[in-house]
Each structure stands twice: as structure tokens, then as C-alpha cells.
Amino acid sequence: MNLLIFSVILWCGVWAMNRQIANSPDRDDRAARIFVPVVLGGATLFLWEGLVTGLGVSPVILPAPSDIAATFAASTATLWEDFVQTVLKGALTGYVIGCTAAFVIAVLIDRSSFLTRGLLPIGNFVAALPIVGIAPILVSWFGFDWQSKAAVVVVMVFFPVLVNTVQGLRETDAMQRDLMRTYAAGYLQTLIKLRLPAAMPFVFNGLKIASTLALIGAIVAEYFGSPTRGMGFRISTGVGSLSIDLVWAEIAVAAIVGTLLYGGVSWIEKAVTFWHPSQRR
Amino acid sequence: MKNAFPVLVVLAAILALWYAAVAPMNIRTALDQAERAGAAVEPAGARERLEVSVWRLMIDNPDHVSEGYALDRPRLPTPVQVGEELWKTTGEMVLKGRALSKRSLIYHAGITLQSTLWGFLLGTTLGILGAVAIVHSRVMDMSVMPWAIISQTIPIVALAPMIIVLSSQLGIEGRGVPKAIISAYLCYFPVLVGMVKGLRAPTASQLDLLRTYNASQRETFFKLRLPASLPYLFTSLKIGIASALVGTIVGELPTGAISGLGARILIGDQFGTPLAIWAALLAAAILAGALVTLLDVLQRVTLKRMGMQT
Amino acid sequence: ADEVKLQLKWVTQAQFAGYYVALDQGFYEEEDLDVTILPGGPDIAPTQVIAGGGADVTIEWMPAALAAREKGLPLVNIAQPFKSSGMMLTCWKDTGIEEPMDLVNRTLGVWFFGNEFPFMSWMSSLGISTDGKAEMGVEVLKQGFNVDPLLQRQADCISTMTYNEYWQVIDAGVSPDELITFKYEDQGVATLEDGIYVLEENLADPEFEDKMVRFVRASMKGWKWAEENPDDAAMIVLDNDETGAQTETHQKRMMGEIAKLTAGSNGALDPADYERTVSTLLTGGSDPVISKEPEGAWTHQISDKALN
Amino acid sequence: METDSVRTSGAKASERSPVIEARKLDLTFQTNDGAVQALRDVNLTINKGDFVSFIGPSGCGKTTFLRVVAALEHPTGGQITVNGMSPDEARRKRAYGYVFQAAGLYPWRTIAKNIKLPLEIMGYSRAQQDEQVARVLKLVDLEGFGEKYPWQLSGGMQQRASIARALAFDAEILLMDEPFGALDEIVRDHLNEQLLALWGRTGKTIGFVTHSIPEAVYLSTKIVVMSPRPGRITDVIESTLPRERPLDIRDTPEFLAIAHRVREGLRAGHAYDD
Amino acid sequence: METDSVRTSGAKASERSPVIEARKLDLTFQTNDGAVQALRDVNLTINKGDFVSFIGPSGCGKTTFLRVVAALEHPTGGQITVNGMSPDEARRKRAYGYVFQAAGLYPWRTIAKNIKLPLEIMGYSRAQQDEQVARVLKLVDLEGFGEKYPWQLSGGMQQRASIARALAFDAEILLMDEPFGALDEIVRDHLNEQLLALWGRTGKTIGFVTHSIPEAVYLSTKIVVMSPRPGRITDVIESTLPRERPLDIRDTPEFLAIAHRVREGLRAGHAYDD
Ligand SMILES: Nc1ncnc2c1ncn2[C@@H]1O[C@H](COP(=O)(O)OP(=O)(O)OP(=O)(O)O)[C@@H](O)[C@H]1O
Ligand SMILES: Nc1ncnc2c1ncn2[C@@H]1O[C@H](COP(=O)(O)OP(=O)(O)OP(=O)(O)O)[C@@H](O)[C@H]1O
Ligand SMILES: Cc1ncc(C[n+]2csc(CCO)c2C)c(N)n1
Ligand SMILES: [Mg+2]
Ligand SMILES: [Mg+2]
């Protein structure tokens, strides 16, 4: 109970401190930008610990962060095996194939205004579909191993990237295009020198959305059949056998990997679209 | 409207591809059946056929290719089969006056729609309020935004059972609320991001103008930030409702929600009736299309009335 | 009336006919009970639901219940309507599998989510490892919710229930002679299925105890009714199926098969069956399902009062 | 005390009382690649009823100075008072009408609604709002365009609408940042005349940024010539032209002499050899 | 044949051969709320080496005419030839250097890379590219800014960069749409001089849109005055000024006379009573 009270107070204290930092002149420092959310996360974990132990929540419902950390440390081998299976083989393969295919096809259909006009509404529509629903079908088509997971990821990331890229390719303004016309620039020159650079902010928008979808897709697909490894496999069997701490360890891996993936894409975005107003300050 | 023709052509092309893909996808099943029925199949024996490519099988057994188009449990059903199944579970039900029976997809779409709308309402409210807080408070901006992103990297399917257990512990009956929570979890993020962008859309000079009038924060919000964010709002609402639908279906898949389109997909899988899965998927697609179109129309009308689009 | 929430192990189907019959025929009402039946699903762990207070009583398989008990969730079996196990492994005959030892070096589909324990025990009693194809090993797939892996030959064998998945294979056009099945019951590794479980701490409460006595009594009445009127019972199940996706033929057939499993049980747990289950689970070799003999995992406290 | 007397006395009578006083004003922007000194040691007194033009090369701090006056930017050194108060207090008293360098109309409001924006915020009644809108639309020759949206107007018309917006409420001090930049010569002449007439009628104090020497000379009672890096005042020219100014005053020797002095001051700020 | 002779002959020698010939040019835009006649019955001959200014109220079709010449817009009636070819053929032969009304630099390229853009497309060698960039940067006084990105420059500097971009390759015809709009008087004067010098050296044919009467008179051999709704030419003034023009030519009576004629033509296009 003391721990509970203490953790609540600590959390409020951290919030107050963040408030101070956020209103101080150093707030735009890289250090501040990382420090503030990290200590808030730390304080929240502490609050969680306090709540769970203070209120005596059963570990089969919600384990304490310390238990999760212990399990994490004790099962690194398992977690690594699952990471390789789900992330490296399933999600990343699917992500790379899906994004590349979408990008290439977007550039190809962009040549034809007929195809663009025909495909874009359909693409928008499909992008809105609950693609996870096709997971059982793809598992039955592509088998139990990572290939079917990659296939689900491909389908999930394909349309967001396609739609964003096509839109980005049309995003050049009339004057920028006219300039190319006065130079009598060819299709390829216009594409490489004008339209692709101008499309990059949109492409990256799609890639970022796709990066959060990729993991979800790979994990959901494992619910419909998998070898006896993988994050989705471990999560679902973990729930079944009440190893909830292991489930949370897997969730932690997913969150870390997802954040790194998203952060990585954002980092590349920053380097590539440094010129865009949203990247300048 | 001028897009109608290209869209139809592309749709026709997709259907044609789909139709063509049915033959190779189903040839093995078709040959297995034909062999059981006593037909001579080349090569004989399902195990032997596993070593042979589908193209070879199609060439060697041209008579049986067509049987792949009429299977009960196809790996890939034909568009017509899916259409028929959909009609059987919707239109025919309506004609029989049983539109809202448990066997009707209309009933299940209704269940899914209900959760989706609750999730959408909850998610957009959260997203918008969050965005308002983030735009007006730097602490919120610095501490909450990164966690909002991280929240989306957590596999919601893993949390789904815990959400159900926790909400029942909090005394919430039924599966509707947990489904709506899952749906809101997926929905709030695009709305939050879009609205933060939108509420920050006013340029420095637009803000300066109001400063010279000494306008209050409230006035700045209602007279500048909110109207300036409307195009972003609608865009994020469209993504939001699509995400809410995905969330509901994800929530219905593994949480044993006993009704709704997600549950139909699950049961279709469990009892080996692929046609039921495809029909439910198609129904979900139609639902998604209808919802997004509705918001799109709303967007056009509103923005037109606000003079923001020609 | 006293409220009782019952969490099922799986979706609404004839496997749970007794409870639906009791509800439909008013047996619960007669006992002054207001029963709510919560169907299960692939991601619902009945053990977790009952731990979270989402249900008062649950239908679970004994291996999962004992495993949960070891994890610190004190579940107690208060009644056992299922006498025998319906689980089996179904294989293609043309793969050349004739006896259990032929399984080595094959790909097998297995249910997880707490349903894998009987299989694991069986394999370790055979001395077969489950870490991949090998001289003395098998490749295990986490099989999904359907029988496609067998039909499409992604696996040589899959887990089936006598009352459910097996018939789906048959319905897909496969004739029984093409298949060979290994029933756990025949292999001597049968474990108890569908028992009625509650939390140990609740049993100390006389009011709860009384409620459970009435619940078990009414439920068993439902089971007996279902055994005697299988077709009507199946229709009752069908009426209660919210998904509207179940078919009459399948449920009627399932009811017929279920009746074979409940036959021979009056509802009280036979300690011999329990012992057999425990010893099967303990022979896990290097990786047993439970590590020590459980204590207090069952009681006749309820069934004695309910059935006599 | 002084402030009070300024605010209550009539326009003509108080012509010589100071409204804006800047003393040793400094303003340095901190940017990623070092500090930019936008204003250095700026001393300037603007009296009530003055029409002050600011002229100088791109980047010399004209806009920055206007923004400091309107409390949109805070000086890093020196003092500035507006009616004896800090600019921020004056802003809270709604002393300013500001015309920005870009029109900055809100695209979701019609022209009339754009003009009403400050009136709504300042709590004018409906009737007053309509009356003001009609008046200023006429002033800038946009009668009949009230119900159009900004994008339905040409660039020049938009700029006029933004001028109308600043004139719709009765601000004591009018700050205009290159208001006539996008207009052609004829329209510009016309609006110059209108502005002079308005100023004559109301006795407002006006700060006016322009790139055009004739415009500065034609309009102002005081011309401030600025020079960049760091932004500073290099010359302040008190106009000797009468308050009443027909367009052809621009051909008088007096006019040309002032223009010449401005041009010389301006030229000094550039670094061309020729 | 004729085309060939034009292209090979020296600048001075061919001064009187027509480069651009418009006959009865019409251009109507179809918009949602009806047709807009942007150009009507435009007849104009521009000879090799001419410096032609276009002046007229906002929306009178100046930009549209330049765009028709550059084949960015297609007339709905009449004919236009450029060097005896269609504008589109001339475009494909890379006859044009075009300076747009807005700078339109690509934000992802540095200033130097922006200037290199046309050179890359036209296949200049690396060395040639660097040489040209250095030359034009000097011409517009932007030495040392080559490695900056567009947003790091003030508006006026961006405009100069876009002028440099158009001058970097050797286009026969230079089309400039209000290139000096955002610049202050001094810079403007300076660039006017530079432009005249360049024109004198190279004998390019220049089409130049401006709002400033003195600028038009100072620069041009021919001034085209246009009037809106529908856009048409109301006056074509052949300048009597010599080709050699020091800045103070602007005070000569001859200059003022031409300016007066332009102003009158312009005024006729407006509807002010005063
Ligand atoms: N927000 C800012 N951050 C950094 N530097 C700035 C900022 N605003 C202006 N500056 C710099 O301050 C100096 C003065 O700018 P200011 O806008 O006042 O010039 P100006 O005289 O109005 O020029 P123009 O005629 O181009 O409008 C410039 O060098 C500019 O780069
Ligand atoms: N793409 C277009 N669609 C419809 N109308 C157009 C289009 N482009 C120009 N116009 C119309 O054609 C007329 C001439 O426009 P143009 O841009 O040539 O004017 P301008 O003389 O260059 O004016 P400014 O001085 O403002 O640049 C205007 O009435 C304009 O509204
Ligand atoms: C993830 C998953 N786990 C278990 C089963 C199978 N299952 C659940 S309850 C039950 C009893 C008979 O229906 C069986 C066999 C499945 N299909 N999917
Ligand atoms: Mg300025
Ligand atoms: Mg123009």
C-alpha cells in the first residue's frame, strides 16, 4: 500500500518536472526531447508496479513490471527465437516486399492517367479494408511458416504505400512541372529530378503507417497457424497456459521493435526530406 | 463521375485475374475429388501429385480444370460463388423477411457496425481531445506524443483477452464494450495525428493577426484553429473509421465475440466453409466503403459550405 | 434467483449441449438459478476469465486446469460430465503411417492454447522429441482452427476431435479408409476433458457451495436429457448459436458423438480417471506439463450433494 | 496621466504628442547557425497623427520593427513605449490595426466575414458589423465582392480586402507592411489617395513599409531609411510637403528633392560599385 | 529555310527578322462557372533581338500570352509561330528560358543545384555546369550562396536565383514574368542594368512582364499595353530611346513622354472616375 501511494506521488512529481522542462528554454534540446517521454514512461511503469502490488492484482491477469522484466531476462533465448521468426523473417520480409512492390507499381501506373484514375479509388477503398480478415486465407495458401506471415504483411502495407506514393507523385505544383516543360525534359528526367523528390514526404508517410501495420499483421497471422515459435504463437499459447508474464515480455519486444522501426523510418525521412517545411524548425 | 469508367475497367480486370487464378489454385482439390469419384487422373495419387506443379497438372488433366470452379471447399472461390453466398446470406434473407435473423449477414454487419461506431466515437473523441491538449500544452506534446506512437506498435491482439478480462472485472457485461475499446485503440491514433497537424495548420501570420486583435485562446481556437483543421479532421476521420472497423473485426476474431462479421470469419475458418469467410470479407468491404463514402460526402458538403473547395 | 456465469471452453456447439439444454428446458430455473452462458473462442482462456472474476464456473480440460493450478490459480474440479476423451490424431493413410512410432520424422498439426498438453505427454511417453524432424523427432505445427493443413497436406497428421474436426475431414469428401486415426483413449494417454471447475476459495462460502450444487444438479439433468434426445438437443444448441453459422447436420452428428463421451459419467469425477490423467501429465520426461502431484485439485463436495 | 490626455484630446490638437517612442532598441534572433541582429540601437519617436514610412533593402528589419511595435516580437534590448505603456499593454487595449505583408485572409470565410473577424472579437453588434463592412468595402473598391471567397479574387483584390479588414475597426495606430506590393501602378495610385484621405479625416498614426521611393515620399510626414546587417536607422527625413497632396505633387522639385535624399540614403545601404 | 538563316546569322545582323508572330490569337479558359476569355484577337510580331515589355492591369492576360509563346498553353484560335515553327516544336528545340512569376526553386536542391537543373537536362558536362553556375551567380550577385537551400534565402534572393537559372543556359528567347516584383528599388535598378547589358551582349529576344511603368520604358524596345476582359492589346509603343541606356535616361523628356503614353494606355484599362 505504501508503494502504491509512493508511486502515485512519484508519478505526479515526474509530471511536474516534465512540465518544468517543457516550459524551459532548453525544451528543444535533443536530450530534453528524449528525457521527457522516457522518465514519464519510467514513472508509469513504477505506477503500474505500485498499483499491481498495492491492490494485489493476480499475476495471471496483470503481472507487475518487475516480474515481466525477470521473465524477459530469463527467456532471452526464446524471445530471440521468436524475434527472428516473426520480425526478421515475417514482418521485415513482408514490409520490404510490400513497400517495394507498392512503390514500383505506383510509379508504373502513374504513367497512365487512366490506370491512376481507375486504381486510386479502388486502392483507397482496399486500404480501408480489414485486411487482417484475410489472414486465415493466406495461411491456408502459403503454409504455416513465415511465408504466409510475410504475405499478410505484404497485403497490409501495400495499399497505404501505393496510395500515398501515387498521391505524392501528383503533388508537384503546376509551375514546377511547367519549368520542366520549358526545358523539354523527358519523362524519366522529370520523374527523377522533380516528381520523385517531391513525392518523398508522402512516400514516407505511407512507410511510417506501414511500419506500425507490419508487426500487427505478422503477429495476427500466427494466430491462424504457425510453427512452434514466433511472437504471435508465444502470445497465444502464453495466454492459454496463463504465462502472462511471458506474454508481456513478447509485447515489450513488439513495442521496442515497432518503435525502432518507426524511429528508423522517421530518421531516414528526416535525412531525405530535410527540405520539407515540416522538417524544418 | 469521370472516374467511373476507369474504375469499372480496373474492377473488370481484377475480376478477370481472379477468375483466371481459380484454376491453378483449385486444381489439386479438384483432382483429389475427381480421383475419389473414380476418374483417371495423371499422375494418380494425391501424394504423387504434390511433387508436380499446378501448371503441369492443368496441362495433363485439362478435363478436370473446370471442376475447380465448382468446389464446395475451394482454396479460392470464384467471384460468382462469393456473390451467390453473399446474396444467400443477405438479399435472400431480406426476401424471406428474415433480414435480422442470426443467419443473415445484415444482422452481423449491424453488430459490427454498432461496435465500430462506438469505437469510432470513443476513438475520435479521445483523438481530438488529445490533439487539443497537445496543441495547447507543451508537456502533453513532449510526453504524450511518443507514447501515442509506441501504443500503436503494441499488438492489440495480444491485449484483447486482457481487455476482456479487465472489463469484466470492472463489471462490464457483454463483449460490446471491450470490442469498442479495441476499436477505439486503433482509431484514436490517426485522428490524433491528423488533428495535431490540423490544429497546427494555421500559419504564424494567421496567428499573429489574432494577436493584434488580442483574441483569447478560446477565440483563437474557434475562429482559427478549428476551421483551419477541418480538412485534416475529415481526412483523419476517414482513416479513423476504417481503423475502427479493422479494430472491431480484430476484436471479434480472437475474443470469441459470438456475433459480428469477425466472428463469421472465425467460424467460417473453424468449420471449413471458406465461402462464409469470403462473404463476410466482402460484407466488411462494403461496410467500409459505405462508411468512408458517407464521411467523404459529409466532407464535401461541409467544406463546400465553408468555401474551402471549389 | 441466484446468478451464475458459465464460461465455456469453445464456441457454442453440441459439445456443450447439456448446459444449453438445462437452460432451455428450464432446469436451471427450477433450481432457482439465473445462468448466463458465455461462449468461448480461440483467444479466450477460461482459466483467465475465471481468475478475473468474469465467470463463476468454467468448462475446462483437466490438463489446462492443472497447469493453471501450478501457476498459482487454484482451480478445483467439482464435476466431470465427460467420461472419456474425444481427442485423436488423424493421419493420411497413404503416408504409410500405421502405428505411433511411424510418426517420427513427420509434420504434425497440434492445437496449442492449453490444448497441447495431452499431445506433449503422449510424445514424451513414446520418447519422441517435438523439436523438429529427426530420427526420433517430429515437426509440430500450431494448427489453426480448421482442418485445411491435412486436406492440403501441409501436415501428415492433425489433431481432431471425434465429434468435430474428424467429420469436417469426412465432409470435405475424404473417405474414412483414406485415414488412420490414433485415439488418445486407445493409446492409454487419455486425459480428462470438459470438466466443471471453480475457484477453491469460493468453495468455502456455503452460499456459493449451495449454488454450485444446484448448478451441477441441473446441468447433469441437462446432459441426461441431451443423451436421450440428441436431435432435440442439437436443435437447442443451434437456437443458441449467435453466429448463425452452425449447421443442423453437423450439430446433430456432433451430439451423437458427444453422447458417447458423456456416457458412463453421472457427473462425479472418478478418482481413477483423475489419477490416470495426472500420471500421464507427469510423464513429461524432460518437460512435463505439471512438475508435481497436485493436491486438492478435485472434490466430491459438490457432486455428492448434487447427485445423491 | 500623459497617456490619458493623449487619448482624449482631438486628432489635430495633439499632433505633436509622442505615441511610439523607441530608445536604443536591440533585437537579436537566435537561429540554428548563429545570431541575427535584426535591429540595433534604434531610436525613433512617432507622434500622434504622424504618417511614417519605413524604407530600406530587403532584410533590414522593417517588418521586425513593426512587429516590435505591435508586441508580436519582443526586443532583446532597449525600451519601447506605446502611449506610455508597453506594446503588450497597448495590444491588450486593442490599439493596433495591422496589415501584413501577405494578405492572410482566412480561406473559409467570405470577404465580408473576414472583415468582420476583428469586429466579432471586439464585440461589435451585428448591425455595427454590417455597417462597417459596407463602409470599408466601398473604401477599397470591393463593393459587391463581400460574399466571394478569397480564392475567387485576384491577388490585388485580396490585398485590398486585407487592408479593409484593418480599417474596419477604429484602431488608433495603423501598421501596414507593404500593403500595396502586389498592385499595379494605377490601383496603387488610387489607393494611395484613398489612404491619404482616410488619414486626413481620422488623424490616425500610421506606420507604413514600402519598397517604392515615390510612394514613401508621397504619403509620409516622416520617412525612416533603414540599412541592413545589423538593421539600423540611417536617416529620418521630415517631409516638407503640405498635408494636402494631389497626385501631381510628384512632379514638383520639392518632391523630387526628398525622393533624391531617400534614394541616396537607400543606395548607401547597398554595396554595388556602380 | 528561313528558320535556319535566322538561327545561324549573328545577333545584330538579323535584328529585323521576326521570331514570334501571333495572328488573331484567341484563348478561352473553360471554368466551372463559364468561359473566361483570357486573350482575344491578339496580333503581335516580335523580331529577333527585341526587348518587349508587357504591361497591363491584373488579369489582362500577360502571363497567359507568355505561356502561349512557351507552349505551356494552347490557343483556342488564331496562329502563333516561333522561328517559323509551332511553339511546341520550338520548346522541344529548347528555345526558351522562362522566369516564372514566383521563384519556383526546388526546395530539395541547393541554389547551385537548382541552377544546374536545366544544364543537367540539356546534357552539359560537369565542368561546363560549374562554369555556368559561377558565371550566373555572379551576374545576380549571389556569389557565396550556391550551397544554401532556397528557404535559407530571403524572397528577393530567391527571385534572383530563379533569374540566374534561366540565364544559365543559352536560350534564344527569354520570357520573364514579373521577375523583379519582390525586389526593392535599388536592387531592381541594378538588375535592370545587368539585364540590359546581357541583352546588349547576346542579342537575345526578351519578353518581359512588369507592373512598373518606368521599368518597362527603361528596358524595352517595344512596350505592349494590354487591357482586361477580354484580354487584348490596346497599344504597342516602339521605343525611341537608344539601345545604350544609363540609369539617368529616366529623367529625360523623351523617357517621360513614353512613360506618359504608357500610363494613359494603362489608365484606360481601369475604371476609376478620378
Ligand atoms: N523569425 C526570425 N528568425 C530569425 N531571423 C529572422 C526572423 N525574422 C526575421 N529575421 C531576420 O531578421 C532580419 C530582418 O528581417 P525583416 O523581416 O524585418 O526584414 P524586412 O526589412 O521586413 O525585409 P523585407 O523587405 O524583405 O520584408 C533579416 O535578416 C531576417 O533574416
Ligand atoms: N488556368 C486558368 N483557368 C481559368 N482561368 C484562367 C486560368 N489562368 C488564367 N485565367 C484567367 O485568365 C485571365 C488572364 O490571366 P493572366 O494570368 O494571364 O493575367 P495576368 O495579366 O498575368 O495578371 P497578373 O498581373 O495578376 O499576373 C484572368 O482573368 C484569369 O482569371
Ligand atoms: C487455438 C485453438 N485451440 C484449441 C482449439 C481446439 N479446441 C478448442 S475447444 C476444443 C474442444 C472441441 O471443440 C478444441 C478441440 C482450436 N481449434 N484452436
Ligand atoms: Mg518585411
Ligand atoms: Mg501574371
TrEMBL record, chain A:
Coiled coil: none annotated. Gene3D superfamilies: MetI-like. InterPro entries: MetI-like, MetI-like_sf. The chain crosses the membrane at residues 32-48, 92-110, 122-144, 150-169, 202-226, 246-268. Keywords: Cell membrane, Membrane, Transmembrane, Transmembrane helix, Transport. Signal peptide: none annotated. It is found in: Cell membrane. Residues 97-272 form the ABC transmembrane type-1 domain. It is a multi-pass membrane protein. This is ABC transporter permease. It comes from Tropicimonas aquimaris. The lineage of its organism: Bacteria, Pseudomonadati, Pseudomonadota, Alphaproteobacteria, Rhodobacterales.
UniProtKB/TrEMBL annotation, chain B:
Residues 109-299 form the ABC transmembrane type-1 domain. It comes from the Bacteria. It is a multi-pass membrane protein. CDD domains: TM_PBP2 (cd06261). InterPro entries: MetI-like (IPR000515), MetI-like_sf (IPR035906). PROSITE patterns: ABC_TM1. Pfam families: BPD_transp_1. Coiled coil: none annotated. It is found in: Cell membrane. Gene3D superfamilies: MetI-like. Its main location: membrane. The chain crosses the membrane at residues 117-135, 147-168, 180-199, 230-251, 275-298. Keywords: Cell membrane, Membrane, Transmembrane, Transmembrane helix, Transport. Belongs to the binding-protein-dependent transport system permease family. This is ABC transporter permease. It comes from Tropicimonas aquimaris.
From TrEMBL, chains D, E:
SMART domains: AAA. The keyword Nucleotide-binding applies. CDD domains: ABC_NrtD_SsuB_transporters (cd03293). Belongs to the ABC transporter superfamily. This is ABC transporter ATP-binding protein. GO terms for molecular function: ATP binding. The keyword Membrane does not apply. Residues 22-253 form the ABC transporter domain. Keywords: ATP-binding, Nucleotide-binding, Transport. Pfam families: ABC_tran.
